[in-house]
């Protein structure tokens, strides 16, 4: 298959092909997570994946290409891990608590995620922006739905979405990747109390003892 | 002057030397801000600074050395820009509003700051951590002082400090560096309303219309 630019479509067409592509992406997460993009190599990736160099080029064009695919893949992995957990929320504020809680869990078990997404700022600026813009958009959609149900007061703004995402990213770095001594439940509860009183419609009185 | 490791102390000892060192750091901010660490070069820095290669080695040992010095310098520049503005705050919550407001101003006029500090995650992990840990520490000290004056309710926690810093970093990226169409006053006011109701002791009722 060839697209309009005359490039071959490298999407796997068999389950076995999909497994090989997935193994290469996991190997790339290890390789770039440990060595970074510049020091990481295609041969390091195929060695970790236990497959031949030819297989690599069946699915990816270059080191840049697999890095770009990896950023999109990790971004999707976060979304797929966090999404179903958020769906169990009591309300729009609880959704943000579960979002942070599950993101902290994800970061603790995928400590390479920061190195990879953050390095995209240098290797592939578009992939970096897309990751954060789509994350912030999902938060804003949730806040607007919560506002429509009367669970969030005032009009949710992009500023709220980026503020909440920024909290999550830095709490994930500090209490997910760097130091996992504090229970994720506790980190999520304290941060969520700030959001609950900050934008919630619950008529709380500003005293955290009542949270 | 030689330190215990036998390395020469390269701190300038004259005003002229200090000016040259400063010119090299400004040139390094441009060079690394535009090209990134890997593509940036010492000759690019000396060309931008209009000084000889020998002058570079009078003040810095290597490309890594000036990068490390640059991260510490930019971290200090933010602190020195934001600090005096925070000192004019009405109270502890207003201090955080002025902190974000002045950081947005700084980011708009120093758009290279993210590329430089963020690249430290890959080039010099210790400098990266130090930048964020010291920023979060300053926020926590301010929150504790505010709590002691009764302006913040509950016990300020590191989690609050990292949450506020994360908000600021992402709002600075989105509304400082990427897009400066929204007034900094507005961004800071909306984010600060979240913090004010979130941790303030003002007995507000959670309705942003009253903020």
UniProtKB/TrEMBL annotation, chains A, B:
Keywords: DNA-binding, Transcription, Transcription regulation. The keyword Cytoplasm does not apply. SUPFAM superfamilies: Homeodomain-like, Tetracyclin repressor-like, C-terminal domain. GO terms for molecular function: DNA-binding transcription factor activity; transcription cis-regulatory region binding. Residues 41-60 bind DNA. Residues 18-78 form the HTH tetR-type domain. This is TetR family transcriptional regulator. It comes from Sphingobium fuliginis (strain ATCC 27551).
């Amino acid at each position: 298959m060839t697209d309009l630019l005359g490039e071959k479509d490298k999407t796997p067409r068999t389950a076995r092909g999909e497994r090989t592509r997935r193994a290469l992406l996991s190997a790339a997460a290890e390789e770039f997570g440990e060595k970074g993009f510049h020091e990481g190599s295609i041969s390091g990736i195929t060695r970790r994946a236990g497959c031949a160099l030819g297989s690599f080029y069946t699915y990816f064009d270059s080191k840049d290409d697999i890095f770009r695919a990896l950023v999109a893949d990790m971004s999707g992995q976060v979304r797929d891990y966090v999404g179903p957990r958020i769906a169990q929320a009591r309300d729009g504020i609880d959704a943000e608590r579960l979002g942070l809680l599950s993101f902290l869990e994800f970061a603790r078990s995928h400590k390479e995620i920061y190195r990879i997404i953050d390095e995209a700022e240098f290797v592939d600026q578009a992939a970096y922006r897309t990751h954060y813009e789509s994350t912030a958009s999902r938060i804003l959609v949730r806040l607007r739905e919560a506002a429509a149900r009367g669970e969030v007061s005032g009009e949710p703004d992009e500023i709220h979405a980026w503020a909440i995402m920024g909290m999550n990213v830095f709490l994930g770095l500090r209490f997910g990747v760097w130091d996992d001594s504090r229970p994720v439940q506790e980190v999520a509860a304290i941060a969520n109390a700030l959001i609950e009183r900050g934008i919630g419609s619950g008529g709380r009185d500003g005293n955290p003892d009542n949270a």
